Amino acid sequence: MLVLLFVGAFFLGALDFTDYVFSHNTFCGNACHVMESTVYKELQESKHYNTPTGVRATCAQCHVSGRLTYAMVDHFLGTGELFVNLTNDFSKPGSFEKFRIAAANRERFKMLGNNSETCAHCHVMEAIKPVRIRGQNAHKDAIDKNVPCIACHFNLVHKDVEPSEAFLNAVEEYLGQGEETDEVETTPDEFGEEPAAGEEEVL
Ligand code: HEC
Ligand code: HEC
Ligand code: HEC
Fold first, then answer.
1. How far is the CA of 174 from the centre of ligand 1 (A)?
2. pLDDT in tens, the chain (203 residues)
3. 88 domain-assigned
4. What's the structural domain count of the chain?
């Protein structure tokens, strides 16, 4: 009974806890501390932090969809890897990079599977007005086929990670739905133009 109460309290507190951990600079130890100098720093340099209107996205707004917060930790570190990683010495530069690729891949699959619902905490797809034609076309197609944001907008705020083949295949399934006509092209090269210097890639 006590155990159940404890577990219940843990999960109730979990959402609050994540927000606390990630929105305050008091991180919880090795694993969280390393995020401060990596993913958190990256966010601070992104367009989701430096907005003209001062609206700033927090970790939880993009990563926690209202279900168990523990899943967040799980997705980032992998259940099996979690304890190994907690005992890692993350103070070594680059120690985080070892598992970044797998973590990015897991997070992308999660956002693909839940229709990128966390993005909708702030963005209303129908209301977005991409500046350029390619964006307008891509969005028209995305609405028609109900394509999740992450299919096109990966490498959004953190250090770039090459998408895995499995992820690209999964994306292809969304984009290829319905018609036999041209695929929607989602990489800068395929669009036939490089992003202008100083411009962040939105892909
Ligand atoms: C605007 C949305 C957004 C915000 C805010 C955000 N993330 Fe992410 N995060 C993503 C996306 C999208 C991915 C999937 C990888 C990719 O394509 O960038 C990701 C991936 C990750 C990963 C996996 C490793 C990696 O580099 O991809 C970790 C860890 C992570 N986020 C932690 C955090 C933490 C901690 C914060 C707050 C300091 C945060 N994120 C804020 C969107 C966001
Ligand atoms: C907390 C609210 C919030 C959340 C959650 C959020 N965004 Fe944003 N997003 C913003 C704001 C604010 C801007 C900047 C708008 C501006 O400057 O006009 C922005 C800008 C963008 C841009 C254009 C700038 C760029 O980085 O290229 C894209 C693309 C984008 N968001 C995609 C996403 C995706 C995909 C997700 C889900 C993973 C997401 N956003 C989650 C608030 C949010
Ligand atoms: C089929 C691919 C695709 C999907 C799915 C998609 N987008 Fe986009 N989006 C694009 C492209 C391409 C652009 C234009 C990028 C450019 O011109 O640099 C764009 C532009 C944007 C912009 C405006 C950037 C600007 O200033 O023009 C925002 C904000 C944005 N997307 C958010 C989202 C969100 C949020 C979702 C999910 C609800 C989403 N997108 C789904 C491909 C997509």
1. 22
2. 555 555 555 554 554 555 555 544 444 445 567 788 899 999 999 999 999 999 999 988 898 876 555 566 666 666 555 555 656 666 666 778 888 999 899 999 999 999 999 999 999 999 999 999 999 999 999 999 999 999 999 999 999 999 999 999 999 999 987 555 444 545 444 444 444 454 454 55
3. yes
4. 1
Q: Is 202 part of any domain?
A: no
Spell out the residues 6+ positions from residue 26 whose beta carbon is closer than 8 angstroms to its own.
20
Structural domain contains residue 51: yes
Q: Which residues line ligand 3 (CB under 6 A)?
A: 116, 119, 123, 125, 128, 130-132, 134-135, 138-139, 141-142, 147, 149, 151-153, 184, 186, 202
Any long-range contacts for 161-168 (C-beta under 8 Å, 24+ apart)?
161/100, 161/101, 161/104, 161/105, 162/101, 163/105, 163/108, 164/101, 164/105, 166/105, 167/105, 167/108, 167/109, 167/112
**Residue 127 DSSP one-character state:** G
Q: Which residues form the pocket of ligand 1, taking CB atoms under 6 Å from any ligand atom?
A: 22, 35, 39-40, 43, 48, 57, 59, 62-63, 76, 100, 103-104, 107-108, 150, 154-159, 161
pTM of the predicted model, to two decimals? 0.83
Q: Phi, psi at residue 25, to the nearest 5°?
A: -85, 15
Residue-number span of the structural domain to which 104 is assigned: 2-175
Instruction: For residue 14, give both structure tokens.
Output: 């979990």
